[in-house]
Amino acid sequence: MRIRRTFAAVIAATALAGLGLAGVATATAAAAPNAAVTGSLTPGECEKGGGTVDWSTNTCKGGTGNGQMVD
Protein backbone atom coordinates (compact mmCIF):
# COMPACT_ATOMS: atom_id res chain seq x y z
CA MET A 1 0.00 0.00 0.00
CA ARG A 2 2.83 2.39 0.82
CA ILE A 3 4.40 1.77 -2.60
CA ARG A 4 1.14 2.66 -4.35
CA ARG A 5 0.89 5.96 -2.45
CA THR A 6 4.51 6.81 -3.20
CA PHE A 7 4.03 5.95 -6.86
CA ALA A 8 0.88 8.09 -7.03
CA ALA A 9 2.71 11.00 -5.38
CA VAL A 10 5.56 10.76 -7.91
CA ILE A 11 3.10 10.69 -10.83
CA ALA A 12 1.22 13.69 -9.42
CA ALA A 13 4.42 15.68 -8.87
CA THR A 14 5.58 14.92 -12.39
CA ALA A 15 2.24 15.99 -13.83
CA LEU A 16 2.28 19.26 -11.90
CA ALA A 17 5.85 19.97 -12.96
CA GLY A 18 4.83 19.32 -16.56
CA LEU A 19 1.99 21.80 -16.27
CA GLY A 20 4.37 24.43 -14.96
CA LEU A 21 6.71 23.95 -17.89
CA ALA A 22 3.82 24.04 -20.35
CA GLY A 23 2.59 27.30 -18.80
CA VAL A 24 6.00 28.92 -19.20
CA ALA A 25 6.23 27.78 -22.82
CA THR A 26 2.76 29.15 -23.53
CA ALA A 27 3.57 32.49 -21.94
CA THR A 28 6.79 32.74 -23.95
CA ALA A 29 5.04 31.83 -27.19
CA ALA A 30 2.31 34.39 -26.54
CA ALA A 31 4.84 37.16 -25.87
CA ALA A 32 7.06 36.42 -28.87
CA PRO A 33 4.79 37.72 -31.65
CA ASN A 34 4.40 41.11 -29.95
CA ALA A 35 8.15 41.51 -29.64
CA ALA A 36 8.57 40.94 -33.37
CA VAL A 37 5.97 43.53 -34.37
CA THR A 38 7.42 46.72 -35.77
CA GLY A 39 5.69 49.88 -36.86
CA SER A 40 3.21 51.95 -34.96
CA LEU A 41 -0.16 51.55 -33.32
CA THR A 42 -3.24 53.69 -33.35
CA PRO A 43 -4.34 55.06 -29.98
CA GLY A 44 -7.30 52.66 -30.04
CA GLU A 45 -5.05 49.63 -30.64
CA CYS A 46 -2.85 50.64 -27.71
CA GLU A 47 -5.82 51.01 -25.36
CA LYS A 48 -7.49 47.83 -26.67
CA GLY A 49 -4.32 45.93 -25.79
CA GLY A 50 -4.51 47.18 -22.21
CA GLY A 51 -2.08 50.09 -22.46
CA THR A 52 -2.28 53.85 -22.25
CA VAL A 53 -0.91 56.39 -24.69
CA ASP A 54 1.95 58.56 -23.44
CA TRP A 55 1.59 61.62 -25.67
CA SER A 56 4.83 63.19 -24.40
CA THR A 57 6.84 60.42 -26.10
CA ASN A 58 4.16 59.12 -28.51
CA THR A 59 4.50 55.58 -27.18
CA CYS A 60 2.18 52.96 -25.76
CA LYS A 61 2.81 52.27 -22.06
CA GLY A 62 1.81 48.84 -20.76
CA GLY A 63 -0.34 46.18 -22.31
CA THR A 64 0.52 44.20 -25.41
CA GLY A 65 1.89 47.19 -27.32
CA ASN A 66 4.26 48.38 -24.58
CA GLY A 67 7.00 50.57 -26.03
CA GLN A 68 5.59 50.79 -29.54
CA MET A 69 5.13 54.11 -31.27
CA VAL A 70 1.62 55.58 -31.49
CA ASP A 71 0.39 57.56 -34.52
Walk me through this protein's architecture.
The protein is α+β, with helices and mostly antiparallel strands and 71 residues long. 58% of the residues lie in helices and 14% in strands. It contains two helices and four strands. It has helices spanning 2-36, 43-48, and strands at 40-41, 52-54, 59-61, 69-70. A two-stranded parallel ribbon has the order 1-4. The N and C termini lie far apart (67 Å).
List the main descriptive attributes of the protein structure presented here.
single chain; about 70 residues; alpha+beta; two-stranded parallel sheet; two-stranded antiparallel ribbon; 2 helices; about 60% helix
Protein topology:
Layout: H1 2-36, E1 40-41, H2 43-48, E2 52-54, E3 59-61, E4 69-70
Parallel strand pairs: 1-4
Antiparallel strand pairs: 2-3
